[in-house]
């Protein structure tokens, strides 16, 4: 993907295929197999099978995943709702303590890699909350529901085999990061899922549209769904913040000023915390960081490396349609608009998780399972340049 080539210095821009291994594991039937699906995938997968761009294929896709052999089909949006509870609480704590502000979102691994490699002095600003993919994977493997997923993980492993389907090649890299490599077994892109469906001869377009996610890790709100679009994470935070503060007023559900795939930098004022910004693409983030005022002007900044957010990710179907991002974006907001619950704290399975296991967002138990850390590092290219410099100096 053109965007990822610009921003992804870790080799994750090259799509390393894993779908053969996943099919092999499914066919072997030796472990309970669970899959989670990102919000952008359920829209873009339609294009792989000749359906109109912007067609929502959630039910068909779930039925295809069950035919492929997955025992459980979960929704990454559950992880997104959880991310909002953790990241929103983290933001409030930083605002209260006046430290490491503005907070940068961290659910885009290409952006995290960029900070670690290009601007390590900004590491303290990154939210320590894991991305939805990683939170969901950690819960599926080691959370309180893991033991209920079935008796069949007897042979060889006491953990379910966990796959995620993402719009993103960089998510493959995220899943093997230090400290998070136990959360997910394999990451597939939307395109790889389409290859698997074709390889098994499943007539995707003819599948019934009635498939539904498994509970409890399949429950989600509209706020989780909009993570797939640029501005979605910040809008989801904006919907939840007054609840997290304990204020008695409800903020608006829809934040039009944070939406759109064409604007580079979008801003809004959130009651109770202050001004926030959304950087639509890594170039927009670079522009914002060149301004003299970004540290003082904003309390939180969302950065998604791909223009449009994940709906423009490098693992999505290629398209020559110049309006493809808008079409996918409208589909994502339509799913949100029709959702019975649209704010992350309304997710009953998330509430239940806190009530029974995690106590509260950012509690020690939540931090253990749902947070991570970052460190300065070098890209392969910079390591090569340093090596060549050293050789030059030695030979001089
Ligand atoms: Fe991946 Fe989304 Fe980041 Fe693009 S914006 S690199 S698709 S996480």
From TrEMBL:
Keywords: 4Fe-4S, Iron, Iron-sulfur, Metal-binding. The keyword Protease does not apply. Transmembrane segments: none annotated. Residues 1-18 form the 4Fe-4S ferredoxin-type domain. Belongs to the complex I 75 kDa subunit family. This is [FeFe] hydrogenase, group A. The lineage of its organism: Bacteria, Pseudomonadati, Pseudomonadota, Betaproteobacteria, Burkholderiales.
